[in-house]
UniProtKB/TrEMBL annotation:
Domain GST N-terminal: 19-90
Lineage: Eukaryota, Fungi, Dikarya, Ascomycota, Pezizomycotina
Domain of life assignment: Eukaryota
Protein name: Uncharacterized protein
Glutathione S-transferase UstS-like C-terminal domain residues: 121-238
UniProt cross-references to InterPro entries, sorted A to Z: Glutathione_S-Trfase_N (IPR004045), GST_UstS-like_C (IPR054416), Thioredoxin-like_sf (IPR036249)
Cross-referenced Pfam families: GST_C_7, GST_N_2
């Protein structure tokens, strides 16, 4: 059976595995809704030129992935994962046979409530991302090292220690920052219908998984309970890569 013609082009980061948490949120949204899509992998240095090509007016926009293009006569390009999820619901409706993705509104609030989580996770795995998740041959590693070392004002390998106070302290920060997930999963058994909130959290787990097997194992047992097992069970069906792959710029 031939696969259906893509209706969306999804720009993801290059690398041996899908790892970017924001890109995972979009991938989950596409898979959940059942939209046929193609994937264009971009190196870090190719993100800005691709954005400038797709968005002639970059005012107020950040040059980031994920980006999607809705293909066909009502063409539209957009970046930023949460607005992308909203647009996918708007354009691919239940009336037209696509599932409605719930929980997008809640993610906006949740993002603010768990604001310190992204930084704590980054402080934990930044060196692993560089070593294991990035494409070693397309300039991504050089770009990542240069830009992130400028932000943290130290070498990548020293970020956990110097900016996070060491691994134990960083893990404590993650535990505190993700307590809302633990509370949410207490009332679940991992078999319910996933919402965008679940995909948002699972995307962060996939980020750690692609970066370090050892840290992923620690994360899965962060609270010494089944919080993360239930979360990942809930989203499992929508994790498989479904898009056709190509390389951008
Ligand atoms: N709020 C954005 C954040 C996206 C984001 O930060 N993407 C990173 C990759 S994980 C990026 O494209 N960075 C570009 C750069 O560092 O130049 C979203 O949710 O899509």
């Amino acid at each position: 059976m031939s696969s259906p013609e893509p209706l969306v082009r999804f720009y993801d980061l290059s690398g041996p595995k899908t790892w970017s948490p924001a890109c995972w949120s979009t991938r989950y949204a596409l898979n959940y809704k059942g939209i046929p899509y193609s994937i264009t992998k971009l190196s870090y240095p190719a993100i800005r030129p691709t954005c400038e090509k797709l968005f002639p007016d970059m005012t107020g926009l950040e040059a980031t992935v994920p980006i999607i293009e809705i293909l066909g006569p009502n063409h539209k390009a957009l970046n930023n994962s949460t607005p992308i999820a909203e647009l996918l619901n708007e354009r691919f409706t239940e009336e037209a046979g696509y599932k409605h993705l719930k929980g997008i509104e809640e993610v906006k609030k949740y993002e603010a409530e768990t604001a310190s989580l992204g930084l704590a996770l980054l402080r934990w795995v930044i060196q692993d991302v560089w070593e294991n998740a990035l494409d070693p041959n397309d300039g991504s590693r050089e770009y990542f090292k240069k830009t992130r070392e400028a932000v943290f004002n130290c070498e990548l390998k020293d970020v956990t220690e110097l900016r996070g106070g060491g691994e134990a302290a960083v893990i404590e920060d993650i535990k505190k920052a993700w307590a809302l997930l633990r509370d949410r999963m207490k009332g679940e058994d991992g078999t319910g219908e996933p919402t965008y909130l679940d995909f948002y959290d699972a995307a962060r787990v996939k980020w750690i998984e692609a970066s370090s097997t050892e840290k992923h194992a620690k994360l899965m047992n962060l609270y010494g309970d089944d919080t993360f097992t239930k979360l990942m069970k809930k989203v499992e069906k929508y994790t498989m890569m479904k898009g056709k792959l190509s390389r951008g710029l």
